[in-house]
């Protein structure tokens, strides 16, 4: 917002200087135009230099000031002293385009109302005659239409970008978050947990015998099983949790503000619900789960995923169809795990 506003004021200053240097109306107020050029240049320099330190609401005032500056150029162009009109009102379009792109609908509407009011006051001071009504109607209509169109296109573009953002982070088969989305959300939850000193639990699970299922009945049968598990998992987690399919038949749940006890309960609900699901040939499914907690079992995403993967491997070794909570206790130099089935 800052660089664009600064560029508009800089271009406005250059145009004003050019208007002074090139042939112009003898009725024009040259001192007023020099004042506008200098003020616009100073404001442009300030915006370009300090935009990173300015809050967003400041730019609403910057655009109001821009409307005032454009109105002053109309007032100084000499028309009120009998000189020709210079059509400076076209510069109001800058305010409309900027507001339509950067501001909310309500903020843009306020800017357009200010433009309409400022132009009306300027025309009253200039006294252009009966043509003033027509000029006001055409200019305000054109400015309002341009701002509204830009705002509508910007909103639709933002919606499209948001849908694309979600699409690249969504697993198409199950509708769950994919690996990229999982990594991003896990990092965000870990950062939040570091600030709040709250735990975050991670549950990794996969379908037992999934390779054999694919080998016996083909990949369509595997897809049916994955879709069924994804649907079940979506109904088990809370709104603040993240359920993801992170590859093949492997699923992961990120559970904010939850320790291993709560994560174990969720894993058991999933494990109890999975046998009710049947694969494409009527055979019940089972799953195994590995469970860890931040910061007990690790302080980074990679460390926690590796610990959960070891716990999942332990569950497979104990006979599958069970949940394992990883224990961060060292015994004779080895990291032990406790299996709970």
N-to-C CA distance: 57 Å
Strand content: 5-15%
Secondary-structure element series:
HHHHHHHEHHEEHEHEE
The count of β-strands is: 6
What order do the strands of the largest sheet run in, or round the barrel if closed? 2-3-1-4-5-6
Approximately how much helix is present in the residues? 55-70%
With helices defined by DSSP (H or I, 4 residues minimum), what is the helix count? 11
CA gyration radius, whole angstroms:
32 Å
Largest sheet: 6 strands, mixed
| Helix/strand/pairing category | alpha+beta
Query: pLDDT average, as an integer?
Result: 87
Residue ranges: pLDDT <50 for 5 or more in a row? 329-341
Shape: elongated
What does this 3D model show about the protein?
The structure is a single chain. With 341 residues, the protein is an alpha+beta fold. Helix content is 60%, strand content 13%. It has a six-stranded mixed sheet, with helices on both faces. 34% of the residues are buried.
Summarize the structure.
With 341 residues, the chain is of the alpha+beta class.
Topology (elements, then pairings):
Elements: H1 2-21, H2 30-50, H3 58-76, H4 92-102, H5 105-126, H6 131-167, H7 179-196, E1 200-207, H8 210-217, H9 219-236, E2 242-247, E3 250-256, H10 260-273, E4 287-294, H11 301-317, E5 323-331, E6 334-340
Parallel strand pairs: 4-5
Antiparallel strand pairs: 1-3, 1-4, 2-3, 5-6
Helix pairs in contact: 1-2, 2-3, 3-4, 3-5, 4-5, 4-6, 5-6, 8-9
């Amino acid at each position: 917002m800052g660089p664009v506003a600064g560029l508009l004021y800089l271009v406005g200053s250059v145009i004003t200087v050019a208007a002074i240097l090139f042939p112009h109306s003898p009725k024009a107020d040259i001192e007023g135009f020099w004042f506008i050029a200098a003020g616009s240049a100073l404001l442009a320099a300030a915006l370009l230099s300090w935009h990173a330190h300015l809050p967003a609401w400041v730019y609403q005032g910057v655009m109001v000031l821009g409307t005032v500056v454009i109105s002053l150029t109309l007032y100084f162009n000499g028309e009120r002293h009998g000189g020709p009109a210079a059509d400076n009102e076209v510069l109001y379009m800058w305010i409309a385009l900027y507001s339509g792109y950067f501001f909310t609908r309500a903020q843009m509407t306020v800017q357009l109302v200010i433009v309409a009011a400022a132009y009306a006051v300027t025309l009253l001071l200039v006294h252009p005659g009966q043509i003033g009504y027509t000029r006001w109607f055409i200019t305000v209509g054109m400015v309002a239409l341009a701002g509204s169109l830009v705002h509508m296109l910007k909103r639709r573009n933002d919606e499209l970008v948001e849908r694309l953002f979600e699409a690249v982070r969504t697993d198409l088969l199950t509708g769950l978050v994919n690996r990229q989305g999982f990594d991003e959300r896990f990092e965000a939850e870990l950062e939040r947990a570091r600030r709040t000193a709250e735990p975050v639990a991670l549950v990794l699970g996969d379908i037992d015998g999934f390779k054999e299922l694919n080998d016996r009945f083909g990949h369509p049968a595997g897809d049916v099983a994955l879709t069924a598990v994804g649907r079940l998992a979506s109904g088990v987690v809370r709104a603040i949790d993240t359920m993801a399919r992170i590859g093949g038949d492997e699923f992961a749940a990120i559970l904010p503000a939850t320790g291993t006890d709560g994560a174990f309960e969720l894993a058991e609900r999933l494990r109890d619900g999975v046998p009710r699901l049947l694969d494409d040939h009527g055979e019940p499914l089972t799953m195994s789960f590995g469970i860890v907690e931040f910061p007990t079992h690790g302080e980074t995403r990679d460390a926690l995923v590796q610990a959960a993967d070891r716990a999942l491997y332990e569950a497979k070794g104990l006979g599958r169809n069970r949940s394992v909570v990883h224990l961060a206790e060292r015994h004779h130099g080895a990291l032990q795990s406790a299996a709970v089935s």
